[in-house]
Design goal:
Layout: H1 10-14, E1 17-21, E2 24-28, E3 32-38, E4 44-50, H2 66-90, H3 100-127, H4 136-159, H5 162-182, H6 189-192, H7 203-218, H8 226-253, H9 258-274, H10 280-294, E5 301-304
Parallel strand pairs: 4-5
Antiparallel strand pairs: 1-2, 2-3, 3-4
Helix pairs in contact: 2-3, 2-8, 3-4, 3-8, 4-7, 5-10, 7-8, 7-9
């Protein structure tokens, strides 16, 4: 029995975050980053490094709103690197080290995909109904519904892919492991199985809040031409991301409040698509990543940033 989950300070528990990988899980605390990936032969490979989030390296980066923008970029950089590492381990391939330039290109591509699919496309589709939507507020509501609809269709489509279903199972394992820690229980499969896979601090919630907040923020931008609408919406996305981060942070702080729970409910329901019930072998991987992210410095620490 592992007692690591017992007597953890509440603040420390809420500072633990993670991400599902290819046949693995990444866990992150304010000072350490840990990957745990299952190889084809069944072994679990661990990678641990000391690494502070970008928002903690500079006072300006830690300011409200700004920290949400910084955390978005940080999550993209770290997440891409983690996925690359997990793919190399899971498929028994030699890991191709990504340069700073490669990482920058990867982040730009991810942002471009997001902007194209969830900003430009909904704006263009809504513009087809311009003459029927005289109210700017109503126009933005329609655009927001279209954006959320595209997002839901996207998630449903990719969730049918076998490889993505596996990732979603590890996503569920990540959430269950964090729940066990937050409730001060031992990290065992029996304890994890008592908890849901739906977690209020999940990045899925953040994406949905981004889309809802964008409805209100975009309402202040007026109604220029279609190209103008797309450009202005893309330019204010960092502000929308920062506001959404603050909302998620607030809701997670008061997650036991009924009103906060109701506000979080749409995001939690959305996780019924992005998480799946994990098996015990996947929980074992999540536990391994969590323990290493919380552990003391040892010889497995790979690097420092």
């Amino acid at each position: 029995m592992d007692d690591l989950g017992k007597n953890q300070p509440e603040r420390r528990c809420t500072e633990v975050g993670g991400q599902a990988l290819i046949e693995g899980v990444m866990m992150r605390t304010p000072s350490r980053l840990a990957y745990a990936v299952r190889k084809k032969n069944g072994d679990i490979v661990l990678e641990v490094r000391k690494q502070k989030p970008l928002a903690q390296r500079n006072r300006f980066f830690a300011l409200p709103i700004i920290r949400g923008i910084v955390n978005l970029v940080d999550s993209l950089l770290v997440g891409w690197q983690a996925l690359s590492y997990s793919a190399s381990v899971a498929f028994d391939e030699e890991e191709e080290k990504l340069s700073g330039f490669d990482m920058g290109i990867a982040v730009l591509m991810a942002l471009a995909l997001f902007a194209g699919l969830f900003i430009a496309l909904p704006t263009f589709l809504t513009s087809l109904f311009d003459r029927f939507l005289s109210s700017t507020v109503f126009y933005n509501l329609v655009e927001g519904f279209i954006r959320v609809g595209i997002f839901l269709v996207y998630l449903v489509v990719i969730s049918r892919m076998r490889e993505i279903r596996r990732v979603f199972e590890y996503h569920g394992a990540e959430h269950k492991a964090i729940f066990v820690l937050e409730h001060g229980e031992s990290l065992t499969p029996e304890n994890a199985e008592k908890f849901t896979t739906l977690h209020p601090r999940c990045g899925t919630n953040w994406l949905l809040v981004v889309m809802i907040v964008s409805i209100f923020v975009f309402s202040f931008l007026g109604r220029p031409g279609v190209i103008g609408r797309i450009v202005t919406r893309v330019l204010v996305i960092p502000i929308v991301a920062g506001l959404a981060y603050e909302i998620i942070k607030f809701l997670s702080r008061y997650q036991h409040n009924k009103f906060a729970y109701l506000l979080s409910l749409p995001g939690l329901l959305l996780q019924r698509i992005t998480t799946r019930e994990p098996d015990r072998s996947q929980l074992e991987v999540a536990f391994a990543a969590l323990k290493e992210s919380l552990g003391e410095e040892d010889t497995r620490v790979a690097g420092e940033n």
